[in-house]
Protein 1
Amino acid sequence: MTDVDNSGLLAENDVPRHIAIIMDGNGRWAQKRYLPRAFGHRAGVKTVRKIVEHCAKHGVEVLTLFAFSSENWRRPKDEVSLLMTLFGETLQREINTLDKNGIRLRFIGDRSAFPTVLQNKMQEGEAQTKDNKALTLVIAANYGGHWDICTAFQKIIDKMSTGELGQQAISPQLIKDHLSTSDLPDPDLFIRTGGEERVSNFLLWQLAYTEFYFTPTLWPDFDESSLDDAIASFKSRQRRFGHTSDQIINKTASF
Ligand code: IPE
Ligand code: IPE
Ligand code: MG
């Protein structure tokens, strides 16, 4: 639970434990420059590197980045295949640096739809970095909140059919325990770049009490100071989780 100072605001040093980002606006960034959308996606990868490093420096525990949604297959074939290539290349190129910097890499989403070579790279990347402690970088790839919840229900139903779980076992905690993020804290801060103010089937269950931050900045233009602005906004908010403001200020809130 987040520490709260006497003013009822989050303590100055309280950086969000988990930041989840919808990295949106790559295509528009390129189009503004009369460039093909691919240039925007390539520029977006550079931003990923900056933001990962900055989060690690700030002591953020988990950074989840929405890289490809379960709906993004609807894009033109050329764009989908460019995104797959870029994903594979980036993974290959960055894995050793991530490892050297103590970053633990994880993927969430239905990876069975990806080419086998890519699935293998994802698995190798996770294995190579599994004991790292600095920052957990979660890449949501072919991810959808609906998929996550359906998969959790499938796992629960399987356990019910073998008798491992009874029907009365259903609870918010049980559902959380079967999501792809079961071992991670829920996001404290959600950021969406690119100006749209929607969730687009990201971490639906996990965002129940997350603070939302929307910025018109396009993802390739988002930088360390943009992230600092988002964190500053987060720090200025009072998280009540259903309590009253007085309960938070007087520290009588029980969580
Ligand atoms: C986000 O940028 C990247 C992915 C969805 C892979 P977009 O490609 O959605 O960029 P816009 O929204 O078209 O500008
Ligand atoms: C959400 O962005 C998915 C990712 C950033 C990977 P989109 O650009 O696909 O979202 P919509 O379609 O505008 O809602
Ligand atoms: Mg978009």
Note: Residues 1-13 have pLDDT under 50 and may be disordered.
Protein 2
Amino acid sequence: MRMYDIIEKKRDKKELIKSEIEFFVNGYCKDEITDYEMSALLMAIYLNGMTKSELTNLTLAMANSSEILDLSDIETNGTFIVDKHSTGGIGDKATLIVLPIVASLGVKVFKMSGKGLGFTGGTADKLGSIVGYDINIPLERAINQVNEIGACLISQSKDLAIADKKIYALRSLTATVESPELIASSIMSKKIASGTKKLLLDVTVGSGAFMKTKEEAKNISNIMIAIGKETGIETKALITDMSEPLGKNVGNAMEIKEVISFLLSDETSIFSEDIADLREVVFNLSAWMIKMAGLGDDIEQNKAKVLEAITSKRAYNKFIELVKAQGGHIYNVYMDWIGMSLDMPVLKDEVKYLKEITAQQDGYIVSIDSKKIGEALVVLGGGRKEKDDVIDHAVGFEFVNEVGDRVQKGDTILKCLYNDKNKFEEAFEYIEQAIYIDNIDKKLADTLKNKPHVLDIIY
Ligand code: URA
């Protein structure tokens, strides 16, 4: 077999067979196929797409390129382990809220999360802002932890789906990341390798996501569901909005604070308009995970259980249990506003400077470009340009206003917390470009403000 023939076949829109796909995946892992050959093939795939059979074979070949985890030692007591995966976004702290909620309701969660790269954040980095939290605990300990407290949140093992790691690195250099087939097979290969049998996808759409339109998001969801069917993973997808950042905070430690505050909501504050977007996403993801775990078929009833888990503080206590189990440092503090003392994680949240970013004109906030906000965070040091960059967990943004709000010139729209004045100057350019204010009519502003954040469910 020759790589040249495989590239030519794909270029000419002919279907590759299983042995050809295994040949280039395994050959690339063993360095027998060069980067230029692989780049040409990836571009042919990007331009011509893949058939269902090619997709399944590519996904399985990548999954089988290294070890496949066996989660059978997790005691499920008749329920199902459910994995959740977001295709990425800005301010996306949903995993950190959903996981303790569903674990407190009996769902067993074995969750692996990655670091952020480029403008999107990563759950592993957010957890990295908790002093002492060990995201790299050994597999055996993680499985024991799920048996003991119902959940673990660990980093994606370096040894899983090695082919995907190599191919993804090349895709990011050759303008071939944004291929629905390559994204779908990349995600699903890691899910197969991590032992997932039931998967709830959060497929984000908008400026801060890979998928820019709802149609693209639906298309990629259907591709992943189809791969799931072929490879034994029951997969469902929520399509969620990522045209503006999710929630009020963007930045690792700041997002952990928002997670804590959300999980400490009471019967009134949980319905606050300020957290409407995050609440909608969290409640839907949690309710679907409970259903997939076999713990309740009715989504509305599941949402009622989610509400109870939050307001009773069971979900918060589960979050603290998880942080403690993985070595996170905790302190106890008396909280006046809820009249009780609580355990809190110790955060790496020291910043030197705070700047309020104000409206340059009167009008309504029409859009907040989440990609630009993500890029501004990278400039401040809160995200990575290169995969080995060390990040500053403390920096970030807190939004005072959101899309659809009326503002007057000089009103604070967001607060920026930073440690390096030079970096702030550069980040400010992105922030300025991200916020668009105009004199639209109130009806349109209200529509923008109240737009749904969960756009569809596909299964
Ligand atoms: N996330 C992945 O894991 N892979 C992709 O290709 C894109 C997003």
Note: The chain has 17 helices and 15 strands.
Protein 3
Amino acid sequence: MQQSLLRVVAQLKRAQRILIITGAGLSADSGLPTYRGLGGLYNGHTAEGLPIEAALSGGMLQSDPALCWKYLAQLAGACLQARPNAAHMAIARLQKLKPECWVLTQNIDGYHRAAGSPAERLIEIHGQLTPLFCLDCAAEDGDLPAHLTAPMPPRCRHCQGLLRPPVVLFGEMLGEDSVARLQGEMAKGFELVICVGTSASFPYIVEPLIRTKQRGGFTVEINPERSAISAQVDIRIGTKALDAIPALVSHL
Ligand code: APR
């Protein structure tokens, strides 16, 4: 095992308060597209000539729900057709070994929960794809797959109101509960933060790493490409998540 991985294993053995921050790169090993970087969804424009961030925005869901749902359905379809990979499983195993190990994910695919990460120590800061809920009567609808093969946009079975997923669309606020949980755990501090598969494009993703570093904690990045935090971390492992995380956890 290479030197840098052995150093991270030593940190994982020693630390109790651990935060694993994950992004689209973790699910890239399940075959899902990332948003930025090579092959990223955001690199191109939609068939309508829009940046994908515009198509997947709260404003578009209001103004043209069929168009927004066209791209939501693409994302959801990809997530439903793939599944968690060995890195998700290894993170769930790490959380069983370390009762104070938390996951902060930007991913809406639900793969951490499916892999066995405990919901009480998982913060899905951009929400999740199901259950859909009605904007008019608030009724929940757990049958996302059925709606993906029906005419867009999905309608409420009770009142025909517009359905949407509990995700944070572009231009929308983060969920208050997620932010409160993150702030609560940040206040307790972390000894070790490992960022996996993220371009670190958002301040609420960079902040836990910077604050941990300022408090003398140890910081790691696992990403084949450099990101906004590469210059900040103590150890950078330039590999895929799948090539590093199962190996790290298997040595605990
Ligand atoms: N293993 C690890 N990292 C990988 C892999 C892999 N197999 N493949 C790609 N990466 C890295 C890329 O180098 C990139 O730095 O994953 C990162 C993915 O970055 P983004 O596509 O920007 O995804 P993310 O950081 O999760 O984006 C954050 O942006 O638009 C929002 O809601 C969207 O949750 C998303 C958020």
Note: Residues 23-25, 28-29, 34-37, 40, 106, 126, 197-199, 201, 222-225, 227, 240-241 surround adenosine-5-diphosphoribose (CB under 6 Å).
